[in-house]
Each structure stands twice: as structure tokens, then as C-alpha cells.
Design goal:
Helices cover 56% and strands 16% of the residues. Strands 1-3-2 form a three-stranded antiparallel sheet. Helix 2 crosses helix 3. The longest helix has 14 residues.
Length: 70
């Protein structure tokens, strides 16, 4: 499936842009790892004020990239 098709299937209950706490739940990772993924650029996030926001599509891209590497 293409990312566009997966977008409607993966994480359907989450909004288009999520915060770090939501990202943690989506990926089942710790807060520390969620911030590490963002600051390292593995998941592209946007800093808005003091908080990061992450487009859901970037989380889907990350999950797909991990599947290919694993």
C-alpha cells in the first residue's frame, strides 16, 4: 500500500498533527525516545513555541522505514 492509502488505515483515531504524548502512544515508546526521534530527524517534527508537533504522515513514514530496515 502507498502512504496515501495507509493514511486512512493507520492511526485513524489520531488527528493530522499530533503532540509528543500522542506520538508516544502511537509508537508505544517512552517520552525520552519520542523526543530523541524528533531531534535526531528520524521523525520530522515542527517546534511551535516550546512544544513539538508532528504530522501523522511523518509517523507513518517512520513506521514504514522501520519495517524495511528490520
Amino acid at each position: 500500500m502507498k502512504t496515501k492509502e495507509l493514511y486512512t488505515v493507520m492511526f485513524p483515531s489520531y488527528p493530522d498533527i499530533v503532540d509528543v504524548a500522542q506520538m508516544q502512544k502511537m509508537l508505544s515508546v517512552s517520552r525520552h525516545l519520542a523526543y530523541e526521534l524528533i531531534t535526531s530527524g528520524k521523525v520530522q517534527g515542527i517546534k511551535v513555541g516550546k512544544a513539538y508537533r508532528v504530522p501523522k504522515v511523518k509517523i507513518i513514514d517512520f513506521v514504514l522505514s522501520q519495517r524495511k530496515e528490520g
